[in-house]
């Protein structure tokens, strides 16, 4: 196929996209034209109520410690947190490099996703909880919804098997389990990471070894 033919096909595709966008805009304008003042006032009031509810939610989240990545020190504190917040990401860690990498990304995501509580707990100092939740590899993220562990992110295997994964890749993985609210596009880094071969030593952990 020569270049002129390819160019012609591309131009047709662009025109089709433009026409679809224009049709959508025309449709929205027509819908607005059909609204009377009462309809507009109803929409405005509904929007104000939505904003008010979101502001109330935000204040409640902040009061519960959302927006920060914090450390908890015992099982009692853990259970209080998961009962108080609808969505919680809990990082079971020990003092090693892979866990510090995870800390860096979670600190960023805690500020970006105020709807979710982000915490960490030292697995070696919380033997009962680690054993109860069957934590074996560190780091492990317990993804908790409505006071129940819904999923786990174990080590870096789902993040390309390397400590060079991006915050966006972790964000997408958490979104997959719906423990955060995420409307973003899939990251290009996710496909790139599959080609990496660098290995990372992750800690095997067992309370028996203690």
TrEMBL record:
Domain Thioredoxin: 73-156
Domain of life according to the entry: Eukaryota
SUPFAM superfamilies: Thioredoxin-like
One Pfam entry name: Thioredoxin
Coiled coil: none
Spans annotated as Disordered: 186-210
Biased composition (Polar residues): 200-210
Name of protein: Thioredoxin domain-containing protein 9-like protein
Record organism: Forsythia ovata
């Amino acid at each position: 196929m020569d270049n002129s033919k390819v160019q012609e096909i591309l131009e047709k595709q662009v025109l089709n996209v433009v026409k679809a966008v224009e049709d959508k805009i025309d449709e929205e304008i027509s819908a607005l034209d059909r609204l009377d003042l009462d309809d507009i006032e109803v929409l405005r009031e509904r929007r104000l109520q939505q904003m008010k509810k979101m502001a109330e939610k935000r204040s409640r989240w902040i009061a519960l410690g959302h927006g920060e990545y914090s450390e908890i020190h015992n099982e009692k504190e853990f259970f209080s947190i998961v009962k108080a917040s609808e969505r919680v990401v809990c990082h079971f860690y020990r003092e090693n490099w892979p866990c510090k990498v995870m800390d860096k990304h979670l600190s960023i995501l805690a500020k970006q996703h105020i709807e979710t509580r982000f915490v960490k707990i030292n697995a070696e100092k919380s033997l009962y909880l680690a054993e109860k939740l069957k934590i074996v590899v560190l780091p492990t993220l317990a993804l908790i919804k409505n006071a129940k562990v819904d999923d786990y992110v174990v080590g870096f295997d789902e993040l390309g098997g390397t400590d060079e994964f991006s915050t966006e890749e972790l964000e997408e993985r958490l979104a997959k389990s719906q423990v955060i609210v995420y409307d973003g596009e899939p990251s290009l880094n996710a496909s790139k990471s599959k080609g990496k071969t660098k290995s990372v030593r992750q800690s095997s952990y067992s309370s028996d070894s203690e």
